């Protein structure tokens, strides 16, 4: 049987000790309230699993502020009403129907490895190739990129990162309870893209992607 000692890596243990002595102690009233009253997050954020693009960090969020669903490339699948296990759709369902979040933000980011997997002509990682299957829905988007986007690899990569966010928002609207709440004004859908190196946030508007100014 594999050893469970140490139970967690030393770096995480040290981090938890800092958290418990620091934030948990100084904000224990907030944690007590969240424990007693439950969570009322202001938004569901759909984001990539990438270690550099944590929504709680980027949006400087407090505990209880954000309900976060992360997966490779931060994708929302299309609505599939069958009996298979759908992790992303379950998180979406809970956020919208149980927590009644008023907003959903799909957050893309620069240098996304999941997006690179779509563009690179790489051999499958495994016989099952879970990653390749997960991002396969972006292949049509990659094939449809403008000719000028194909000139430069970095530009091509970013263009697909942005279009992936737009596709996930379109996929959100395939869920009937998302669509109906958006139509009645109880839910708003948003797209954003984080530039890791520059620390800039771009937002999807009716006229396209714009660099969001300082608030
Ligand atoms: Zn990513």
Helix share, percent: 40-55%
Report the count of strand segments: 6
Estimate nothing, just give the exact number of structural domains: 2
Briefly note the structural class of the backbone. Answer: alpha/beta
Average pLDDT for all residues: 94
At the first level of CATH, the class of the largest domain is Alpha Beta
Net shape:
globular
Distance between the termini: 53 Å
Could you describe the largest sheet, including whether it forms a barrel? 6 strands, mixed
Relevant CATH superfamily of the largest domain? Carbonic anhydrase
Shape-level CATH architecture of the largest domain: 3-Layer(aba) Sandwich
Rg, rounded, reads 19 Å
One letter per element, helices H and strands E, the order comes to HHHEHEHEHHHHHEEE
Order of strands in the sheet with the most strands?
2-1-3-4-5-6
Number of helices in the DSSP assignment: 10
* Hetero groups: zinc ion
Q: What ranges have pLDDT less than 50 throughout 5 or more consecutive residues? A: none
CATH structural fold name of the largest domain: Beta-carbonic Anhydrase, Chain A
Topology of this protein?
Elements: H1 10-21, H2 23-26, H3 28-37, E1 43-48, H4 55-58, E2 66-71, H5 87-98, E3 103-109, H6 113-119, H7 130-134, H8 139-143, H9 153-172, H10 176-183, E4 188-195, E5 200-205, E6 208-211
Parallel strand pairs: 1-2, 1-3, 3-4
Antiparallel strand pairs: 4-5, 5-6
Bound molecules: zinc ion.
């Amino acid at each position: 049987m594999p050893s469970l000692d140490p139970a967690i890596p030393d770096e995480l243990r040290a981090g938890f000790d800092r958290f418990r002595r620091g934030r948990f102690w100084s904000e224990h009233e907030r944690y007590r309230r969240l424990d007693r009253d439950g969570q009322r997050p202001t938004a569901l954020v759909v984001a990539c699993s990438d270690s550099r693009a944590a929504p709680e960090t980027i949006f400087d969020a407090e505990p209880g502020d954000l309900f976060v669903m992360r997966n490779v490339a931060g994708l929302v699948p299309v609505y599939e009403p069958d009996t298979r296990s759908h992790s992303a759709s379950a998180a979406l369902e809970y956020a919208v129907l149980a927590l009644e979040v008023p907003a959903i933000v799909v957050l893309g980011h620069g240098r996304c490895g999941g997006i690179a997997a779509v563009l690179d002509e790489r051999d499958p990682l495994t016989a099952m190739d879970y990653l390749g299957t997960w991002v396969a829905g972006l292949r049509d988007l990659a094939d449809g990129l403008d000719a000028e986007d194909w000139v430069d690899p970095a530009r091509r990569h970013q263009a697909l990162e942005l279009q992936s966010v737009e596709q996930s928002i379109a996929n959100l609207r395939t869920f009937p309870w998302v669509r109906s709440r958006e139509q009645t004004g109880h839910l708003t859908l948003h797209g954003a893209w984080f530039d890791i190196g520059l620390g800039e946030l771009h937002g999807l508007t009716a006229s396209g992607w714009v660099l969001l100014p300082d608030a």
